[in-house]
């Protein structure tokens, strides 16, 4: 991995953009975002960028640990082999994980298993012994998997995923139990989950459909019976372009369509859905990602008219934010390390070379103090 040191011109550009994009600059590269009443007010809480590490010819997909990432060396459309790359033993060769044909990789919270899939197949990989368990996603003729939707873990024992009929829960033995059947004109386009502390083995499954409506569905897992839903989905918000739920389930970050070519990034409390806090505005706001400890929120913003396009990280207690990249990657996932100190963003064609034959890959890892 090559260390990308800040150049003089880039440093000047960052300062100019930040002065134009934020108010109340405090002189160290952080400023107060347009949050009026953040969830918690804490003096002097801010996000400070330590450095950026860059890895060329590789696309990072997930974290195996705080010092190791899962990556592929080919464009995602090729559904290629997966490797483990060490961030502390950079001269060591990448380790093959024995997984091929993957475009989605999602480790369980404790990293005991991986969920891996492409557009037609999915499986669980046991990280202790490397054994793969295919998911039963064939209806006898066709795959029922909606491979364009990532899905989410329910603890260490189950995984909620999008299928052709709606939502199902996959168990580690490969079985899938339907929990929500949707009509033919409605289907999920993004799914996330959070613990539901009100019931044992309970989880809150959030999803947005193709009509940009955000729903919440209560589900129950457990070893004594099959997973099941509790009631019907509850409509939370309409006109939602993107969303992310905090790890504790208490807050939602929403990108709300508030006009033609305008998104408003807001924070919503789970128990007060009518009360929203404005974070930022732009033509597009995407890829919100909470750190595992809930202390930071990363998001990408595209807003050339106001000179504030880029990748931002906000301290969720104070509302202070830091611009960490001028490139608003609106498609790549923003993935936090388990300790919440590193943020990974990967790109295809970072130099805007859009020809398939010359596809270039790059992974950047942002280290925070």
From TrEMBL:
Chain ranges passing through the membrane: none
InterPro entries named in the record: 6-blade_b-propeller_TolB-like (IPR011042), WD40 (IPR011659)
Pfam families xrefs: PD40
Keywords: Signal
Signal peptide interval: 1-23
Protein name: Uncharacterized protein
Lineage: Bacteria, Bacillati, Bacillota, Bacilli, Bacillales
């Amino acid at each position: 991995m090559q260390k990308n040191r800040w150049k003089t011109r880039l440093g000047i550009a960052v300062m100019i953009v930040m002065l134009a994009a934020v108010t109340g600059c405090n002189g160290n590269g952080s400023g107060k975002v347009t949050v009026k009443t953040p969830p918690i007010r804490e003096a002097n809480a801010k996000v400070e960028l330590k450095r950026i590490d860059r890895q060329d010819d590789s696309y990072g997909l997930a974290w195996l640990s705080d010092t190791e990432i899962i990556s592929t060396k080919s464009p995602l459309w090729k559904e290629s082999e997966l490797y483990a790359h060490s961030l502390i033993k950079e001269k060591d060769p990448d380790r093959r994980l024995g997984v091929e044909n993957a475009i989605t990789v999602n480790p369980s919270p404790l990293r005991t298993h991986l969920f891996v899939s492409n557009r037609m197949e999915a499986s669980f990989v046991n990280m202790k012994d490397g054994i793969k368990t295919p998911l039963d996603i064939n209806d006898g003729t066709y795959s029922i998997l909606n491979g364009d939707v990532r899905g989410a873990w329910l603890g260490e024992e189950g995984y909620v995923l999008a299928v052709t009929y709606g939502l199902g829960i996959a168990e580690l033995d490969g079985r899938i139990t339907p929990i929500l059947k949707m009509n033919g004109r409605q289907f999920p386009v993004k799914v996330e989950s959070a613990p539901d502390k009100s019931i044992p083995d309970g989880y809150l499954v959030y999803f947005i459909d193709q009509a940009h409506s955000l729903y919440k569905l209560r589900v129950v897992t457990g070893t004594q019976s099959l997973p099941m839903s509790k009631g019907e989905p509850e409509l939370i918000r309409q006109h939602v372009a993107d969303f992310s739920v905090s790890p504790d389930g208490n807050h939602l970050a929403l990108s709300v369509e508030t006009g033609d070519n305008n998104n408003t990034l807001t924070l919503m409390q789970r128990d007060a859905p009518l009360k929203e806090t404005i974070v930022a505005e732009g033509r597009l706001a995407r890829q919100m990602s909470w750190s595992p400890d809930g202390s930071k929120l990363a998001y990408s913003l595209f807003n050339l008219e106001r000179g504030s396009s880029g990748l931002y990280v906000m301290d969720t207690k104070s509302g202070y934010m830091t611009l960490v990249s001028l490139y608003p990657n609106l498609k790549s996932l923003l993935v936090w390390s388990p300790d919440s100190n590193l943020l990974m963003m990967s790109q295809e064609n970072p130099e805007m070379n859009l020809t398939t034959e010359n596809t270039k890959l790059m992974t950047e890892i942002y280290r925070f103090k």
